[in-house]
Design brief:
heterodimer, A: 3 domains, 18 helices, B: Cytochrome Bc1 Complex, Chain C
């Protein structure tokens, strides 16, 4: 902590002082800011677009849901191949030369998208459902190459899939048990059961939404909703809010780098942006010690505007000002 | 045995930790510095109000946040009064950051780190960064579409640094706990420290003010 200025009278010598009631000023500012805040709250309320549920997603866009779920089962989704801290993959691992903090931190979540997002929930839903139980057995007993063949063929067919009465229809093909698995998963999702199954996998009380959020993030439906609300990174979404409300506009600088080269095309853009902001924050913190940065205020006449009464007084009281 | 009040020089004789702490606080935190009733006339500028308004906005943020935390994170979505309290929280945060940024720029162009005030500036920057993280965790804790997307979108930046292994933005419980407990304590403590630093040194003199009392030219824009 700073030590008290030993001799404030000497520090301000020659400069007139005036009565100044700090606490009164604080109270007045509290009341005025409160009036402004309450007026804004009453007039404009606050944004609250309801969260997307997996049920709502499956009902609104079954093809996107099934396409995403198939990629989770095949291990080809964004999350499946992500890498630390979710999986052992490497697709989203960012490095800068020898600097690889994401890799160093390791896989903390140990996510298995096929088991956690598809096979696990389906196993729970298979109780009393002989068709689904048989499909799971067939899938589980098949070798990797056979499974891959089913999944590849089904993924290709999903590109031309249609929705009929809430179910996803694809052209006939050699998909093995995959259509049965996906039809059941879609059914569980549309009923709202999958929202619970993705959360209830580990413990009764649950506040960790890593699984469902990654699952929804892998699909295109949530991104579409975010784009409608101008929340995408390419839309400066980091500093936006839903609707027309102000968001975290104080993140403008952080958001700006993502719009500019080389950041907007770099595969390690996130790491580059974070490191850039880290350097800038350190520079800001140590401005008092950095030549040029600490001299700019003296060069620019803005301080003369701030202290215009002082500089006016100094002109009329040169002797007192020189004390 | 000495009776209370009969000790001829209690402070000198008092070797207790409590006495030493009292003497330290009296020496380091003199009340006439903490709560002055006179100021140099040049503080009559709107720039000095920015920091004060930021503090009052913080009080509104904390007050509304306490109510929101008391009733739980789902309350404001289903209650009209809860929505109103959340709206106060939301706009108080907007006001807080608006005036914090004005305060920061104002103090920069006044080179307020001069004459031994570099540590005050440094703590102010740390407060700003801590407030950014607090705001971020708050947005993630909203339990709505915005919170979902911010968490999904922000995870890549956090993960790229390696912090995602222990700071999981997709874990609502972790983010909410940090937002309502840990960060408010950090921000409030740092703000109190910042204000005490300002009061102990007093406001900085205008740039190019007269020669320092020691006869040396005071360091103008550089820190001392």
């Amino acid at each position: 902590m700073s030590r008290p200025q030993d001799d404030q009278e000497a520090y301000y010598r020659g400069i007139p002082t005036v009565p100044y009631d700090l606490l009164k000023e604080l109270l007045i500012a509290f009341v005025v800011s409160g009036v402004v805040i309450i007026a804004l709250a009453l007039a404009l309320s606050s944004p609250d677009v309801p969260p997307l549920t997996i049920q709502a997603w499956a009902q609104a866009d079954p093809v996107d849901f099934v396409t995403t779920a198939t990629s989770e089962l095949a291990g080809t989704s964004f999350s499946a191949a992500y890498g630390p801290p979710y999986t052992d993959g490497s697709d989203s691992v960012q490095t800068l030369g020898p600097l690889a903090p994401q890799q160093w931190a390791g896989n903390a979540v140990h996510l298995d998208t096929a088991k956690d997002f598809v096979l696990g929930p389906l196993a729970a839903a298979a109780v009393g459902n002989a068709d689904l139980a048989a499909a799971l057995t067939t899938y589980g007993s098949a070798d990797d190459a056979t499974r891959q063949g089913w999944l590849d063929a089904y993924t290709t067919a999903l590109a031309d899939a249609t929705t009929q009465n809430g179910a996803v229809a694809v052209a006939p093909g050699s998909y093995g048990p995959v259509p049965v698995l996906m039809a059941n998963l879609l059914g569980v999702a549309r009923s709202g059961g999958l929202d619970g199954l993705l959360l209830a996998g580990h413990q009764f009380y649950q506040t960790n939404y890593t699984g469902p959020l990654l699952f929804m993030g892998d699909g295109g439906y949530l991104a579409g909703l975010a784009e409608d609300q101008h929340l995408l990174g390419s839309q400066w979404g980091m500093m936006n809010e839903t609707g027309s409300y102000p968001g975290q506009e104080w993140l403008w600088l952080y958001s700006m780098w993502y719009q500019l080269p080389p950041y907007n095309t770099a595969p390690n853009a996130d790491l580059l942006v974070v490191l850039t902001m880290l350097v800038l924050t350190v520079l800001l913190a140590f401005v008092p010690f950095i030549p040029i940065l600490r001299d700019i205020p003296r060069w620019l006449p803005i301080h003369r505007l701030v202290w215009r009464n002082y500089y006016r007084w100094r002109k009329t009281h040169p002797e007192q000002a020189a004390l | 045995m000495t009776t209370l009040g009969s000790d001829p020089a209690p402070d000198q004789a008092d070797k207790t930790w409590t006495g030493a702490t009292r003497r330290l606080l009296e020496r380091r935190l003199p009340l006439n510095h903490l709560l002055p009733s006179r100021q140099p006339f040049f503080v009559g500028s709107w720039v000095y109000v920015f920091g004060v308004v930021a503090i009052t906005a913080l009080i509104w943020v904390i007050g509304s946040g306490v109510v929101l935390a008391f009733f739980g994170p789902g309350w404001w979505h289903v209650s009209g009064i809860g929505r109103f309290v959340n709206s106060i929280h939301f706009w108080a945060v907007q006001l807080l950051f608006f005036f914090v940024v004005l305060h920061l720029w104002g103090q920069y162009f006044m080179a307020s780190w001069r004459d031994g005030r570099a540590k005050t500036w440094l703590v102010g920057v740390v407060v700003f960064v801590a407030a950014l993280v607090t705001g971020f965790t708050g947005y993630i804790s909203q339990q709505n579409l915005d919170a979902q997307w911010i968490a999904i979108n922000a995870k890549d930046g956090i993960n790229a640094t390696g912090a995602g292994a222990f700071f999981n933005v997709l874990d609502f419980g972790q983010m909410y706990g940090i937002h309502v407990m840990l960060l408010p304590i950090i921000v409030t403590t740092l703000v109190v420290l910042h204000v005490v630093q300002v009061r102990l040194r007093g406001v900085v003199r205008p740039i190019e003010a007269r020669t320092a009392p020691t006869g040396r030219k005071p360091p103008e824009a550089g820190a001392s």
